[in-house]
Write a structure and sequence with these properties.
In chain A, α4 packs across α7, α7 runs antiparallel to α8 and α9 packs antiparallel against α10. The radius of gyration of chain A is 21 Å and the shape is globular. Chain A has 3 domains: about 110 residues, Orthogonal Bundle (Butyryl-Coa Dehydrogenase, subunit A, domain 1), CATH 1.10.540; about 110 residues, Butyryl-CoA Dehydrogenase, subunit A, domain 2 (Beta Barrel), CATH 2.40.110; about 150 residues, Butyryl-CoA Dehydrogenase, subunit A, domain 3 (Up-down Bundle). By secondary structure, chain A is α+β, with helices and mostly antiparallel strands. In chain A, β9 and β10 form a beta hairpin. Chain A is built from 11 helices and 10 strands. In chain A, about 50% of the residues lie in helices and about 15% in strands. Chain B is α/β, with parallel strands linked by helices and about 270 residues long. Chain B has a single domain, classed as Rossmann fold (3-Layer(aba) Sandwich), CATH 3.40.50. Chain B contains 8 helices and 11 strands. A 9-stranded mixed sheet of chain B has the order 9-8-7-10-6-1-4-5-11, sandwiched between helices. In chain B, strands 2-3 form a two-stranded antiparallel ribbon. In chain B, α2 links the parallel β4 and β5. The longest helix of chain B has 17 residues. Chain B starts with a strand and ends with a helix. The chains are: A alpha+beta (about 375), B alpha/beta (about 270).
Chain lengths: ~375, ~270
């Protein structure tokens, strides 16, 4: 797919921002020490990257899905952590509010998130409910003007730095599976809300992930998001859009690793010549480039399908995520292989990219879940 | 109040530089960028716009593809853009170029509160002549090498960056200022800026539109009319990487002499 001049410019601008602002020093510091870089968060907020695909009337930039994919791609080419910073408010955090928030909720919660003033995270997964979110046990029981929320969410990206969480809980205890689940906007400062210790992760260090525990949390009924008992479908739809973002992240990270591999193959000399003179090396680079390009085109096609509300958009997003994230894991592994022993050393960026992309076949639906989604569609 | 910013599309010299047989740059085969100092000039104008709400107009002289650069600057925040373009203008040196741009600015009209911003110099010719010559032709006061600009009423307080220090002077509008990179950090684009402003109309001023301008002498523009002729352009041979010698003075001296002997220098 050939990008329009407008999208080319948007892509170039994302690249310039990432390369200039998210320096190697920041990346390495976050990878070593974890935590969160507020300075870069404020910068991405200042330029509206936190609200790229959120409409202008709700504090966003009014961009399309393609621009959103380009942002994820270019930011993750430099460092996946930056991509995830900008992705969350656009996708999992802002998505449910955009889909079914009322006007007051959109102005109160979505607009500040789009402007990067507040952070909203998405809390669906539970210790016993991952690929099967319908088995969740978090409950919300009506009590006058309030719902009383009890339960535990886990692996919530951004929870330790969040102002609000979109929380899914069972409101109809007589129902099972996806039925009887509702969405709530929960202020993280409410009494009874607490976060677990940030998880020690393999990669994506610098965007903290933890449990959120709810103990008799009183959530006002005004913060019920969407219709009662109908939250599950919204979660699934939000995840469709999120999958496009993750697929674009994978393409960007693979591109970053590929560029490192090319530079290394040209610079590293063995047996008196650069290692890329060996066909075993140059063919590997050719395969990597081809697979990245194939994934990129699939991602752009899925973005275009979303922008045009095409009937197969959700399936294409799943296909893009499945293909691009598996590809990125393979390509980052090959990039390390081309670096030889140096690729195993933390001084080389491919080592970090390899760890960062590993989560991409897991979060927002594993590769196996994507295959369920795709096969259901092609066999219906 | 209107701010004109003169900008130039230049070859990206971080890539490969290509030269035609006749000594001119082969611009078509090279990637282009917006001249870096001009980006600082645009940013300075946008900062004044943020503060005072004035109109910012970007002006360039160049071939039709320079339109892409103007669209980028409108996405960045410029209100409108003017492309001065015509075969008759091609190959102009700084004397001819400043004459044409001065004519275009005169044609657009310069009011009492208006300011013209330019970058200090372009990275292709490196002359730093066009800005000052435009000011001369428009009979405007000029302040070069601006590293800080503040507007106080109808005067601008400008800090000039000189080789051995700063000079701060006040200048009455209308005036022309040339900007250096120390002035500011050009902003990034926003997606909203691109979506809303990229497709806005661009004003094109061609030869027909400008030939009767009083500031333009049609016999001294373009390649033929330019007093400067390029004798020769070439890509200088690349220097090899340097090498630092280490160790005792005696060891280093020995190594140095050995190297010089090897290269038949001594």
């Amino acid at each position: 797919m050939i990008l329009s001049k407008k999208h080319e410019l948007i892509k170039r601008n994302f690249r310039r921002f990432a390369e200039t602002e998210f320096t190697t020093e920041i990346q390495e510091e976050l990878d070593r020490n974890g935590g969160f870089n507020w300075d870069i968060w404020h910068k991405i907020g200042k330029y509206g990257f936190t609200g790229v695909k959120i409409p202008v009337e709700y504090g966003g930039q009014g961009g399309d899905y393609l621009s959103y994919a380009l942002m994820n791609e270019e930011f993750c080419r430099v460092c996946p952590v930056l991509g995830i910073y900008a992705n969350t408010p656009n996708s999992l955090g802002g998505g449910p509010l955009l889909q079914c928030g009322n006007e007051e909720q959109k102005q109160k919660y979505l607009a500040p998130a789009a402007r990067g003033e507040k952070q909203i995270v998405f809390a669906l997964t539970e210790p016993g409910a991952g690929s099967d979110p319908g088995s969740m046990t978090t409950k919300a029981v009506a009590d006058g003007d309030y719902f009383i929320l009890n339960g535990r969410k886990c692996f919530i990206s951004g929870a330790p730095v969040a102002d609000y969480a979109i929380v899914y809980a069972r409101t109809d205890l007589t129902q099972k599976g996806g039925r009887g689940i509702s969405m709530f906007i929960v202020d993280m400062k409410l009494e009874g809300v607490s976060c677990g210790k940030p998880e020690l992760k393999m990669g994506i260090n610098g965007y903290p992930t933890s449990d959120i525990v709810f103990e008799n949390v009183r959530v006002h009924k005004d913060d019920l998001l969407g219709p009662l008992h109908k939250g599950y479908g919204v979660a699934m739809k939000t995840l469709d859009g999120g999958r496009l973002g993750v697929a674009a992240q994978a393409v960007g990270a693979a591109q970053g690793a590929f560029e490192e591999a090319v530079a290394y193959a040209k610079g590293r000399k063995q047996f008196g010549k650069p290692i890329y003179y060996n066909q075993g090396v140059s063919f590997m680079l050719a395969e990597m480039a081809t697979e990245i390009e194939a994934a990129r085109n699939l991602v752009y096609a899925a973005a275009e399908a979303k922008d045009n509300d095409a009937a197969n958009a959700a399936t294409l997003c799943s296909m893009a995520k499945l293909y691009a994230t598996e590809m990125a894991n393979k390509v980052c592994g090959q990039a390390i292989q081309l670096h030889g022993g140096y690729g195993y050393i933390k001084d080389y960026k491919v080592e970090r990219l390899y760890r960062d992309v590993r989560v991409m076949t897991l979060y927002e639906g594993t590769s196996q879940v994507q295959k369920i989604v795709i096969s259901r569609d092609i066999l219906k | 109040m209107r701010i004109y910013v003169c900008v130039k599309q230049v070859p990206d010299t971080s890539g490969k530089v290509a030269v035609n047989d006749n000594g001119t740059l082969n611009r078509a085969s090279m990637a282009t960028i917006i001249n870096p100092d001009d980006m600082n000039a645009v940013e300075a104008a946008l900062q004044l716009k943020d503060e005072l709400g004035c109109q910012v107009t970007v002006v360039t002289m160049g071939p039709p593809p320079a339109e892409g650069m103007l669209r980028e600057l409108m996405a960045m925040g410029a209100d409108d853009a003017v492309l001065v373009s015509g075969r008759e203008f091609g190959g102009s040196d700084t004397f001819a170029t400043s004459q044409i741009i001065a004519g275009a600015l005169h044609n657009l009209g310069i009011g009492k509160d208006d300011i013209v911003f330019c970058g200090r110099q372009a990275i292709d010719g490196d002359t730093a002549q066009v800005g000052p010559q435009i000011a001369e032709k428009l009979n405007l006061p000029q302040v070069t090498y601006a590293a800080d600009i503040k507007k106080k009423g109808d005067v601008l307080c400008v800090k000039r960056l000189l080789e051995d220090g700063y000079m701060t002077i006040e200048v009455q509008t209308p005036c022309l200022i040339t900007c250096v990179k120390e002035l500011n950090e050009p902003r990034y684009l926003t997606v909203k800026g691109v979506m809303e402003n990229y497709d806005k109309d661009i004003v094109v001023l061609d030869y027909e539109a400008l030939k009767d301008e009083e500031l333009i002498d049609v016999d001294s523009i373009g390649l033929k009319g330019s007093p400067t002729n390029i004798f020769k352009s070439f890509t200088p041979p690349q220097k090899g990487a340097g090498r630092m010698l280490a160790g005792s003075v005696e060891d280093m001296s020995n190594e140095l002499v050995t190297e010089l002997l090897k290269k038949h220098i001594v």
